[in-house]
Amino acid sequence: MKKTVLSIALALAAFQASAHDHSTHDHSGHDATAADTKTYHEVQSINDVLTVENARAKATIPGVKVSAGYMKITNDTDEPIRLVEANSSIAKHTEFHRMFMRDSQMAMRKVDALEIPANGSIELKPKDYHLMFMGVKEALKPGQEIKVTLVADNGEKFDVQLTVMPMTKY
Ligand SMILES: [Cu+2]
């Protein structure tokens, strides 16, 4: 029994070590709330305006050309920020979506903008706000890095790196 626990711990440690081995990004300690962030915590500071944490996308299922992206976005300025567009070369269309309950079933709809309060944050996460990739051009594989550009209503662009995570983590 002890041996099993130890080998899981070692596997986790190895995963964390590799997840943290991005020399161009800042990293901070663990503040995990969801299962999928327990082994993945990465912080990107973008244009000194936004801090993005745990940016990730789902791996695609063979034959299915859609995926979703998640992250926590913090506004480091004293003014609210309105993100009105998202683009990525990996998909024909990238949209902001939100899941909601309709007749006791989960459904989702496009949202025109993501509002991030001054010095506040918004979390894109499963069953809530997310990025939706439609018409994914090539299969997304775990470990792959993809770039998504978020565009604010004043035209400012923010390039975010997302790590593709296995489907089983969601
Ligand atoms: Cu969606």
TrEMBL record:
Protein known as: Transporter
Cross-referenced SUPFAM superfamilies: DR1885-like metal-binding protein
Classification via InterPro entries: LpqE-like, Lxx211020-like, PCuAC_sf
Classification via Pfam families: PCuAC
PANTHER family membership: BLR7088 PROTEIN (PTHR36302), COPPER CHAPERONE PCU(A)C (PTHR36302:SF1)
Coiled coil location: none
Family annotation (Gene3D superfamilies): PCu(A)C copper chaperone
Signal peptide (residue range): 1-19
Alphabetized UniProt keyword annotations: Signal
